[in-house]
Design a protein that fits this description.
This protein is mainly alpha-helical and 274 residues long. It folds into two domains: 108 residues; 155 residues, no CATH class. Helix content is 68%, strand content 1%. It contains twelve helices and two strands, in the order H-E-H-H-E-H-H-H-H-H-H-H-H-H. A two-stranded antiparallel sheet has the order 1-2. The radius of gyration is 23 Å and the shape is elongated.
Length: 274
């Protein structure tokens, strides 16, 4: 995907530069020329529909960079309406183009190769030491390769949650329960509104706890960090979108991203070793 996306990104930058040049050459103080306004609208839409998602989810560009750039493109969308100031266009486009290669192109070029095709997902399996788990994940990936992406993601999520639960049991339910109480007692930070605590005594009771609650507790147990927690929550959303009818697409890129994340964050993470 890296080789496919970089030319798209290069053309996107070139189009932004062309728009800036065109606006800069205008004689008046306002941008009334329809071609320029149409170009601004098209580029702002292209950011939303084609550019942002791969940068954010596939290439993991820093959230602060993505959010700041998104705000500039929202501004560009507004500016594409008739008769806005030329100076506002230039300021917005300069902000988008400033350090463009360092923000987006260089990090992509430096990313390590990941399994970008479904058949490459088989390379994830040798990293698993549990034979049953390897067999289960192999079957899940086979589902994806057969075109059953939603079923594959549901199976993959089950494998990840099973490993998380087994690790909690290995550490001890007392530690799990105590962590939930400690999180509930926080009065500041991201968990200050957390209002749950658990008194789990059996594996069956642990299996009844909602998956996103498990993610919160294992983060506070130190098994994952905040970024990994957010990524697992995204994987859980893919699981939900796969398990329930809806219009959200589950395509090859989603499947590859999902299996890469659950494998690296949970299944082959030394912190979840059994």
């Amino acid at each position: 995907m890296k080789e496919e996306f970089l030319p798209i990104l290069a053309k996107f930058k070139k189009d932004l530069q062309a728009l800036r040049k065109s606006v800069n050459e205008l004689d008046g103080v306002k941008v009334s020329r329809k071609a320029d306004r149409d170009a601004a609208d098209r580029l702002a839409s292209e950011w939303v529909e084609r550019i942002r998602s791969p940068l954010e989810h596939k290439f993991k560009i820093e959230k602060a960079v993505i959010d700041a750039t998104a705000e500039h493109f929202k501004k560009l969308h507004v500016l594409s309406r008739p008769n806005n100031q030329k100076s506002s266009y230039l300021k917005c486009l300069d902000a988008i183009l400033k350090g463009f290669d360092n923000k987006f192109v260089l990090p992509i070029k430096q990313t390590a190769s990941e399994p970008e095709k479904l058949h490459d997902l088989q390379t994830l399996i040798p990293g698993l030491t549990d034979a049953d788990e390897s067999s289960y994940l192999k079957e899940a990936i086979a589902c994806a390769q057969a075109g059953h992406s939603r079923a594959a993601i549901v199976m993959g999520w089950c494998a990840a949650i099973d490993r998380i639960q087994r690790k909690i049991l290995l550490i001890g339910l007392q530690k799990f329960n105590a962590t939930s109480v400690a999180v509930k007692g926080q009065t500041s930070g991201k968990f200050k509104r957390w209002n749950k605590e658990f008194n789990v005594t059996t594996q069956g009771e642990l299996q009844e706890i909602f998956d996103t609650d498990l993610i919160v507790i294992v983060e506070n147990m130190g098994l994952i960090d905040g970024n990994e927690s957010e990524r697992l929550e995204t994987c859980f959303q893919y699981r939900n979108h796969s398990a329930h009818p809806g219009q959200a697409p589950i395509e090859h890129a989603h499947v590859v991203s999902f299996f890469t994340d659950v494998t690296k964050i949970v299944l082959t993470n030394s912190k979840f070793a059994l």
